[in-house]
Amino acid sequence: MKKIFLAVLLVFFFILPTKSQAAAGKILFIPHDDRPISYHQTVQVVEAAGYKMIMPPQEFLSNATNMGHPNELWQWLFENAPSADSAVIASDSMLYGGLIPSRKHDVSEEKLNARLKNFKELRRKNPALKIYVFDSLMRTPMAGTKGDIEEPEYYQDHGGNIFQYTGLLDKKEISSLTDEEENYLQTLEKNIPEELFKDWMDRRRKNFSATKTLMDFTRDDVIDYLILGRDDNALLSQTHRENREILSYAEKNNLPKTKFQSMPGIDEFNILLLNRAINEMTNEYPFVNVQYNKGVGGDTVPAFSDEKISASIDAAITIAGGYKISNPKRADFVLLVNTDKNGETLWGHNEYPSGGEFKPNLKADSGTKHFVKLVEEYVKKNYPVGVADIKFANGSDNALMKILKDKKLLFKLQSYSGWNTATNSTGFAIGTGLLAKKMNEKSKQKILATRYLDDWAYQANVRSVVGKEIFRKFRDPKFYYQLEDKLSWAENRNTELVKDFAEKNLPRFDFLHGLKIKNTWLRMFECDVIF
User: Fold this and answer.
1) Per-residue confidence at 24, pLDDT binned at 50, 70, 90?
2) CA 99, CA 258: separation in Å to the nearest integer?
């Protein structure tokens, strides 16, 4: 009897596939452009966890100088979908060419409808394929910026008025305007050129209609799961106006959160949906515990968002296929969120370049000291800890990072993120942290080092230093947004400073040899960390 039992055990342990072997499914991934965070930094995380990624040729994706190639992407998708178990697809790439093209395109409604029908054809030809899609509502930036490539050119002159005008329209629909606000609304309307506002709203109308069609496809199981992102929006704005209608439409069509979510952000959706694909493929349901810094904490409404960060984080966990729990002892991942005690978003770096000196704020306030103790306590308890650093906009909290370095806690984390907006950072920290348990130690170190060099070294320090040097050297701040023929100079200077930062703040990992910083989108806004 014992021999028979032993034979059965041998079958289970050596013949039947283990969990890690069963997890080797293929995931097809089409991002919304080839920015490092959208493209290979996300892929690096998933591949480090042991999954095979099927990617389109990079030249098919939109970048700083082209509007993408939807027709080529559809052809590639139809050819490669049969070999995949699941597909994570940016609808903006398939409909307009990419995320930024979705804000500036001149695609006709007829062509959009034809491209939308391709989703039904994809389902018809691949009935077993899990199809996860992320889409975006057009953003409403608070103002335009000279040299910004992300909006129509007229937005740099009229963007501020458009934002305020649509914000007042939003408020008027929600509640009411004072007499002063009503007068200001009429003044703004007169100051915005009619033909430019019509161009902006016509594009929004087409994109909004396409989003509703994608929601219909999700209701009808053409799409298994759909996320709609609200990038760069505010409590009162055109994006917020449209989202109210979207939520009403979802309710009328009985679209539950198990099928559809609308939330602030966009760039983090790829890693969250890739997690969902993996968790559904492996039948895993990870538990996530979330703890906030003292003060306002989860009730913080961060810059570029129209809701509390706690709501965004709860939605991100659901999107990833996880469940939020209150007990950190039972959690597969514990997310610690560094917020300002007053619920503000601080702007200590990445200011518009003026030529002045940049000095990082290394003085820890009471909130930072409290947060460090929380990190230290949870790491000592061997909880799988990740940090979402959202106290500052676009970059790490320098005071926090210095203490974490001094206490040798940086590489005891499972994930870290502080690179852009609050929802970008929290979503990426969750998506990376949930996959960290599947990685070997070197892969984990490399991914953490990438974030520290990007979010801390570059975004919170080097970008500000070099931005001011650009202003002093070339006397025109436009080169901060469009490096043009200054690209080589900027990349060399960025590399020099990031290397120096790494030598002073990170361990001497072998993979840091030959470190380079590239500005592949020809601007200072983001960088690519190359080992």
Assistant:
1) low
2) 25
